[in-house]
Amino acid sequence: MPGMNGPALVEAILPLRPAIRIVFMTGYAGADDLLNLEQPGAALIRTPFGPLDLVSRIDRVLLNH
Question: Which domain holds residue 34?
Answer without folding.
Answer: 6-63
